Predict the structure.
Amino acid sequence: MKSKTDFPNINQKKAEGMSPDGVPFRVLVVDDSMFVTKQITQILNSEGFEVVATACDGGEGVEKYKELYPNLDLVTMDITMPKMDGVTALEKIIEFDADAKVIMISALGKQDLVKKSLLLGAKNYIVKPLDRKKVLERLLMALK
Amino acid sequence: MRVEYINPFVEAAFKIIGQVIDQDATRGKLYLKSVSQPVLGVAVIVGLAGDVEGRVLFDMSEETALAVASAMNGEKLTQMNQLVKETIMELANMITASAVTKLQDLGFSFDLTPPAIFTGVDMEISNNGVEALIVPMEISQGKLEINVAIRERI
């Protein structure tokens, strides 16, 4: 009879969306597009992250950040959104928590917005279309 | 219409469509229209305002829109629901934003309006005094037309 130990573990790669002790990193996704939110959620779930909340505009994003704080590891923030844009929301989140890890996402590769976001305290910037590798790489870099 | 406004849209469309839908997309012959044109059934419009002004229209049949949205979502979508509409708007948004980034690098300054989507039959669009350049594209999901009408602000 074969015991479990007789089978090699062929899937040794650890999901990168988890801390060393196996707890998923908690993410807030702020984006006004249902399609983009779904895409980011799928990428993150596939790597073991947990999307704990989503928000459709900057104002809702700031509110949810405050509600979830400090049980939150990362925020992905769209730039162009109705009511409150992502750069303003970033500013408000950093005002509330200077250590917040916010990654900006936009279809526009505008240099001034990239610079402004980074100066305000964003940890990184992703230009759409979103590619799984690029998203995971930037998010994990921000967590280090 | 100056060619430097158009090329970034053509390049951006190829780049983005190649990345998110079909690597083998081909472009038909560009043509200019100054009168009304029919709209294929699902159309996303994005406005531009600044040093140049006008609009970009992304136009396709409902069948193509469903196939494109299915490809982008990685699942079969059969109804023109909110997810399909938001997916097509996001495609238009990515192409326009990529083109605008290039135009801004060339020194033009302008902003985009959020995309809006129209669906229906027997629609047409007219431009008052602005010529529209149509960029037809063939993708494996069907035909997609990018219709650009831009003029310099006087």
